[in-house]
Amino acid sequence: IPPTICYIDACSARGSGDFGSNGYGLVFREHEFDEVTTEPTDFEWTLPSGDRSVCFEVKKLSEEHGWVAHAPAGPATSPQVGDRVTILVNHSCPVVNLCNRLSVKTKDGSFPKYIDLISHGCCQ
């Protein structure tokens, strides 16, 4: 395993094959995601408490897994085996009907708003 990468149980069917300015998306620790109110810069952001946190770039997606870059401080500060994460995908149009709900944040930063999807598993 390359020392700069960790693997996640997420796949291209749940993300997008569109590569953007943040790779294929950003990975946040699940317990911190609701506190994200601004777009991270250099993969760092500030929690409402004032503490700093990091997110991680999805570098590659396959049909079964995702490859995620470790935090700049190294593997010890990256998600560990068993940690739950939330992935903010680069482009979600082709995969919306494959998920149970969407997480939405408004321009004023209010969050979270969840929209349950009734189209889960339906054909387009």
From TrEMBL:
Pfam families: D-ser_dehydrat. InterPro entries: D-ser_dehydrat-like_dom, D-ser_dehydrat-like_sf. Coiled coil: none annotated. Residues 32-103 form the D-serine dehydratase-like domain. This is D-serine dehydratase-like domain-containing protein.
